[in-house]
Design a protein that fits this description.
Blueprint lengths: L7 H16 L5 H8 L3 H13 L3 E5 L2 E4 L1 H29 L2 E5 L8 E7 L2 E6 L4 E5 L8 E9 L8 E6 L10 H9 L3 E5 L1 H9 L10 H10 L4 E6 L3 H10 L4 E3 L1
Length: about 250
């Protein structure tokens, strides 16, 4: 394993080779020195070592290229950096960061709590389950409690998103009221996209949580396990589906 974080020289060597690969073939040692934070003389010495090791080839004055061996080394080193970053964010910071949850039962500071999602919110109760944490505050049932020391995985099944189209005002078509009623009755959340969609839902006395950024709202809610129906004017469907695709949320347009 190549650990470019093991010492300053290895890290500097890695950064200089990255700069060469990015700037090749015309390489300014002065610009690399400014970017890396070392002297131009030091850059020259590093480049000479990289050439000797077969990681860089010189094509002429101030013209260098990373060789296949150099690129392979960069990939290996970058993989190590990524693994270390994942370790820090997931194993280290993930266990010490503090988050908020709704206590479903009385909780005391220092209690081990079981964590789960319900109605799109993180919940905590005393005890141990597949996902646990440690309470950092006291809280009565229904109050917000601080939680840290996370372990395990919270079981969560992503919700479904159905998009029901309604015709634009310029169309002679009639909205499919029966389909809208059937779809929204079992939904955890209903959103509207487009003025016509808002109008149809109001006409049917169906409560929609939002008519702003419906796609983003649906994506966030579905990622938290809620089933969502978006009633959208035909002209607005594309904006909704774009947001869902960007969030990698599956959906059906009806």
């Amino acid at each position: 394993m190549i650990d470019v974080l093991d010492n300053k020289r290895a890290a500097t060597r890695f950064r200089i080779l990255v700069e060469i690969a990015e700037r090749q073939p015309a390489v300014s040692q002065g610009e690399i020195a400014d970017a890396v934070g070392v002297t131009s003389q030091a850059v020259s010495e590093y480049i000479r070592d990289l050439v000797e090791d077969g990681f860089v080839e010189k094509e002429g004055r101030s013209r260098y290229r990373a060789t296949n061996e150099g690129v392979d080394w960069l990939f290996s080193a970058a993989t190590d950096v990524r693994r270390f970053a994942d370790h820090v964010t997931e194993d280290v910071l993930g266990s010490v960061q503090e988050d908020a949850a709704v206590a479903v039962e009385s909780v005391q500071e220092g209690d081990t709590v079981s964590l789960f999602m319900d109605e799109g919110l993180l919940r905590a109760r005393p005890g141990e389950d597949s996902a646990t944490g440690v309470a950092t505050t006291d809280a009565a049932a229904g109050e917000v409690v601080g939680v840290t020391g996370f372990e395990g995985v919270i079981e969560l099944q992503p919700g479904e998103v159905d998009i029901i189209q309604v015709p634009p005002v310029r169309s002679d078509e009639t909205p499919d009221y029966e389909r809208i009623r059937e779809a929204t009755e079992g939904a955890d959340l209903v959103a509207a996209a487009g003025v016509e969609a808002v109008g149809v839902l109001r006409e049917m006395d169906i409560d929609s949580r939002t008519h702003f950024a419906a796609g983003e709202v649906a994506a966030d809610a579905a990622s938290r396990g809620l089933d969502v129906v978006v009633v959208a004017t035909t002209d607005a469907v594309g904006r909704v589906t774009d947001a869902l695709r960007d969030s990698e949320i599956s959906y059906a347009v009806r």
